[in-house]
Amino acid sequence: MTVPFWCLFVGCLLPFVWAFSRIPFLGELGGPDNKEPRAQAARLTGKGGRIVAAQANAWEALAIFAPAVLVNHLVGASPGSATVLSVLWVVARVLHGVFYTTDLDKGRSAAFLVGLGCTIGLFVEAARA
Known about the structure:
By secondary structure, this protein is mostly helical. It has a single domain, classed as Up-down Bundle (Four Helix Bundle (Hemerythrin (Met), subunit A)), CATH 1.20.120. Helix content is 78%, strand content 0%. The chain is built from five helices and no strands. The protein has helices at 3-21, 37-42, 46-74, 79-101, 105-128. Helix 3 packs parallel to helix 5. The longest helix has 29 residues, at 46-74. The radius of gyration is 16 Å and the shape is elongated. The relative contact order is 0.17.
């Protein structure tokens, strides 16, 4: 399996990392509600609410990164560029979640833009192939 595919795998796991990270904050709402977990998560505020938002954003970023990796691979674009862009995307997305949960808005925005740039870069490299 190629490095970009491993990065895609990591990207698929990130939303779950954030989902599990919110569990300690559910104590503020009486503990986990397995009947209505999304409604309960929507009531979280502060750090718990930011973790929920980081999870949602991780899914959104994955929705564009996944096709970028696949298209890049299918057209036979430069594996070196794809590796660098994919690893940088993972780093940016991990930092994005960390910055989101710790309320560092400028860092979060910068990490978001780096990740988005990497995704666009994968499509650009595919177009050049």
